[in-house]
Amino acid sequence: MGSQVVQELEEAFLPRLDAAKEMLEREFPSFHFNVWSSSTGGLTSYQGHDVGLECLFPGTPDELADNVAIIIGVKHLTTAPLLCDASVGWGHGSAPGIHIDLLPNPVAFSTAELNAVSARFGLLISVFRSALIAGPGKSDA
Question: Considering the entire predicted model, what is its pTM?
Fold first, then answer.
C-alpha cells in the first residue's frame, strides 16, 4: 500500500515541482533551489514520505531562516495513509510571516484528496514566490 501512495504522490507533484524550479531559477538566479522526494519517520513504525521544493538563501546570517520550502507529505504509510502536509514554511530563524498550510488537519489519503491539493498547487507556488521576494530578515513578527 505504501509504495503505491508514494508513487501517486510523486506522479502528482514531482513534475510540477521540477517545472516550478526551472521557472524560479530563471527569475531568482542568485538563489539555490532543490526538488526532493524523501522518506520520513525511518526510526518509527509510522513511515511517511514528503516531496518538495526548497530555496536556500546563500550568505544568510545565523539568526535568520536560510530556507523556505513547499512540502507535500503523507504519513502512516504502513497502516492508514494520511495526507498530512501541503504547505509553504520557513526553516529555523527569523523569517517573514509569509506561509500557508492547505491542510490544517491530516485527511485520509485518496485520489480525491490528492486532486484537491493538486488543484490548489498554484496557490502554494504563489505563496512560495512571495516568500522568495520577501526573503529572510524581513520578519513581521
Answer: 0.90
Q: What is the DSSP string of the chain?
A: -HHHHHHHHHHHHHHHHHHHHHHHHHH-TTSEEEEEEEEE-TTSSS-EEEEEEEEE-TT--TTB--EEEEEEEEE-TTSS-EEEEEEEEE-SSB--S--EES-SS-EE--HHHHHHHHHTHHHHHHHHHHHHHH-TT----
Q: How do residues 79-93 score in pLDDT, each as one tens digit?
A: 999 999 999 999 887
pLDDT at 18: 98
Find the helix packing angle between 2-27 and 111-119, rounded to 10°: 10
Rounded mean pLDDT of 24-48? Answer: 87
DSSP per position, 56-68? E-TT--TTB--EE
Minimum mean pLDDT range among 54-68, 101-115, 118-132: 54-68
d(CA 48, CA 53): 17
Instruction: Answer for the pair 36, 51: CB distance below 8 angstroms, yes or no.
Output: yes
